[in-house]
Amino acid sequence: MRTTTGARAGQYAALLAYLVFLAFPFLWLLSTAFKPASELASLHPTWIPQDPTLANFRQAFEEQPLLRAALNSLLAALAAAVVAVAVATPMAYVMARHRTALARAATGWVVVSQAFPFVLLIIPLFLVLKNLRLIDSVPGLVLVYVVWALPFALWMLAGYVRAVPAELEEAAAVDGAGRLRILVSVTAPLLAPGIVATALFAFITAWNEFFFALVLLKTAEKQTLPVVLTHFIGAEGVADLGPLAAAAFLATLPSLVVFAIIQRRITGGMLAGAVKS
């Protein structure tokens, strides 16, 4: 009994230490965003700002077009999420319901593709977009985001499809429903939570993405929010800490809110995909 209690206490202590480790960067970012220049230059920094100010936020909006960049990020992320889910949903259904050798090979490829680094993909993607004349365009960036989000979306949605009992579709077929009617009236409503969670995950991925946007977008008016944040760093690598922290804090909020909404659904989708029927 004592051993069990001690092990549980150790687990809770490790979990608490891990949470502190994860929360430290965000809390320090929040503290920096509200500190005046005098405190930022202090040799003895404090957690809580002694004289909190909103000057960093005003300066950030004055120095860089944050609203325009946020709009570009929002349009690209929304479009990528919608297209990725629209393409992945029927493909995931086929992969989950028709467990052929080809479907298993496709599933394996989906898993392996997640190990590819960005640098390995950027050259072929750049050449494809160049031939399509989509370099330095938001549609081209959306296409790249869809390609990047599609493997995980397929894997995640396939888990949700497997969690839907096939007997429900068979019962609907016995009652005379056709394949399209079964998909629309029986399967789709049960997949709705998974579709929403997958779309939100694709949105977060596109909203936070930096590397592809940096390489593919050259016009200042088309740059996304993560790229614009780098403009707070001078040519000599000196960062304007106050405005940078304020802008980064605002850019982080949407991701935190969306992830807080979908984290349980993502876990449910992973567990559903791990259960064999």
UniProtKB/TrEMBL annotation:
PROSITE patterns: ABC_TM1. This is Carbohydrate ABC transporter permease. Residues 70-262 form the ABC transmembrane type-1 domain. Keywords: Cell membrane, Membrane, Transmembrane, Transmembrane helix, Transport. The keyword Transport applies. InterPro entries: BP-dep_ABC_trans_perm (IPR050901), MetI-like (IPR000515), MetI-like_sf (IPR035906). The chain crosses the membrane at residues 12-30, 74-96, 108-129, 141-161, 182-207, 244-262. CDD domains: TM_PBP2. Belongs to the binding-protein-dependent transport system permease family. SUPFAM superfamilies: MetI-like. The lineage of its organism: Bacteria, Bacillati, Actinomycetota, Actinomycetes, Kitasatosporales. It is a multi-pass membrane protein. It is found in: Cell membrane.
